[in-house]
Design brief:
Shape: globular
Radius of gyration: 31 Å
Largest sheet: 4 strands, parallel
Helix content: 40-55%
CATH class of the largest domain: Alpha Beta
């Protein structure tokens, strides 16, 4: 009888030990989403994971189409809480005349809350974006701005190259962002007012510096400068490449050379974004000199907020030197 009693007690002890180690094993193998594997009272839900990665689950993503629009929008959205601005295209892409969307571009846009673009036909891919992402909110920088046209009646989209055009685009972006994100309207409007004051001061400085120059006839590299020329009373007598990257034909080259020689033009402006080979060829046959004028279509990847002003300050130095 005693042996039987000892046997039962020993069996109960073994059972208790087995249950104890089984519970420990379950604790160690508990899934990450369970309460057992986290700090007391905290469940690692997808929302918590997102917050760890992005800093906030409520962050608003604004995507811009290319470099100058990015610079304008960064100034407008400066210090706005939970708003992030990223550029869609690489900052060295330049004007988007024939740009084709990459799969990575559409992936970026699919995460965006707002897409800010120049408009006036520059982003030829816009219809594709609207078709594939119909819920994406759009901001058109050139909205309701009077556009210049070439001799064929084609509208020129390079509004931002004149400082007046840049100011109007900043106003448009700020107004439309304020409508789409009314919670941050006050900051958008305050930032845009501050930025516009800087641009107006820059415009006044350039106007005063160029008002007494004697040379007004210039040759530009492509159709980026009509707004700029209009603002500073310059006369574009010829354009080297109607389509950037496409050198002029022999007939076009001959016509440009004739125009330059007839008018006595001695200044040709190439652009830092493109090869100056065609401009240098023309200069060699006309005794003109080649300078570089920047349409502010490209810049550094993490562009400082004052990038536009700095580029225009450099343009002013070049103009004063070239047109004196």
């Amino acid at each position: 009888m005693l042996r039987k009693s000892l046997f039962i007690k020993f069996s109960l002890i073994l059972l208790a030990v087995a249950l104890f180690f089984s519970a420990c094993a379950r604790q160690e193998n508990a899934p990450q989403g369970s309460l057992d594997n986290n700090r007391e009272g905290e469940v690692q839900t997808p929302s918590n994971k997102d917050r760890d990665k992005a800093g906030t689950v409520d962050e608003k993503l604004i995507v811009t189409s290319f470099y100058p629009i990015y610079v304008f929008t960064v100034n407008i959205a400066k210090d706005v809480p939970n708003v992030k601005v990223v550029n869609l295209t690489e900052p060295q892409t330049g004007c988007l005349h024939d740009y084709q969307l990459l799969p990575s571009d559409l992936k970026t846009l699919s995460k965006a809350d707002i897409f800010v673009y120049n408009g006036a036909g520059l982003e030829s891919f816009l219809d594709k974006v609207i078709e594939q992402l119909p819920g994406l909110k759009l901001v058109e920088a050139s909205k309701d701005i009077p556009l210049l046209k070439d001799e064929n009646g084609e509208e020129n989209p390079h509004v931002w190259v004149s400082i007046s055009g840049a100011i109007e685009e900043v106003r448009n972006i700020a107004d439309q962002l304020s409508s789409l994100d009314p919670e941050n309207k006050e900051l958008y409007m305050a930032n845009s007012s501050e930025y516009i004051k800087k641009l107006e001061a820059l415009k006044e400085k350039m106007t005063n510096s160029l008002k007494d120059i004697k040379t007004r006839d210039i040759v530009t590299f492509h159709e980026a400068f009509p707004y700029f020329a209009q603002e500073f009373d310059l006369n574009i007598v010829a354009v080297v490449e109607r389509e950037p990257g496409t050198e002029p034909s022999a007939g076009e080259l001959r016509e440009i050379i004739e125009d330059i020689n007839t008018r006595g033009t001695r200044v040709i402006f190439a652009e830092p974004q493109y090869s100056p080979r065609a401009a240098e060829s023309i200069a060699a046959q006309t005794n003109a000199k080649v300078y570089f004028l920047d349409p502010v279509a490209t810049g550094p990847k993490d562009a400082p907020a004052d990038s536009y002003e700095k580029a225009m300050e450099e343009n002013l130095k070049v103009l004063v030197e070239a047109l004196k």
